[in-house]
Amino acid sequence: MVTIAITNRKGGTGKSTVAVNLAAELSVRGKKVLLVDLDTQGHSTIGVGFEYKKGLLTIHSVFSDPEIEVDKVIYQTR
Ligand SMILES: Nc1ncnc2c1ncn2[C@@H]1O[C@H](COP(=O)(O)OP(=O)(O)OP(=O)(O)O)[C@@H](O)[C@H]1O
Ligand SMILES: [Mg+2]
Fold first, then answer.
1. With a threshold of 0.85, does the pTM exceed it?
2. Which of 20, 25, 26, 64 has its CA 20 to 30 A from that of 32?
3. What are the tens digits of pLDDT across the range 5-38?
4. Does the residue 38 lie in any domain?
5. H-type alpha helices, 1-78
6. Whose Cα sits closest to atom 15 in ligand 1?
7. Ligand 1 atom 26, closest CA
8. Ligand 2 being an ion, which residues bring their Cβ within 5 A of it?
9. Is residue 4 part of a domain?
10. How close is the Cα of 16 to the center of ligand 1, in Å?
11. Residue 2: CA count within 13 A, CB half-sphere
12. Residues lining ligand 1, Cβ inside 6 A
């Protein structure tokens, strides 16, 4: 398993854009990819075409409720 973090202290510099496109490209190349979106803006989530609906469990649920396991907030996307 390889973990890739896209970081830059400055806002609006393309971090989410790189993360989404890297995830998509790796997946096209046959890799199993888990894209983790910790930003409350949810831009990476939107970027992979996932439609958030009110009430869905998210990574925030994992941090706020110790009963919720991380595998409950992993969703399959195209
Ligand atoms: N290579 C690029 N060329 C031109 N525009 C780009 C490029 N990469 C990203 N952008 C645009 O720049 C804006 C900011 O990109 P993005 O949201 O990926 O940045 P971010 O670093 O994740 O921002 P934030 O700090 O708010 O999370 C978006 O409008 C995006 O479409
Ligand atoms: Mg971002």
1. yes
2. 64
3. 999 999 999 999 999 999 999 999 999 999 999 9
4. yes
5. 15-28, 43-47, 59-64
6. 14
7. 12
8. 15-16, 43
9. no
10. 7
11. 7
12. 11-17, 39, 43
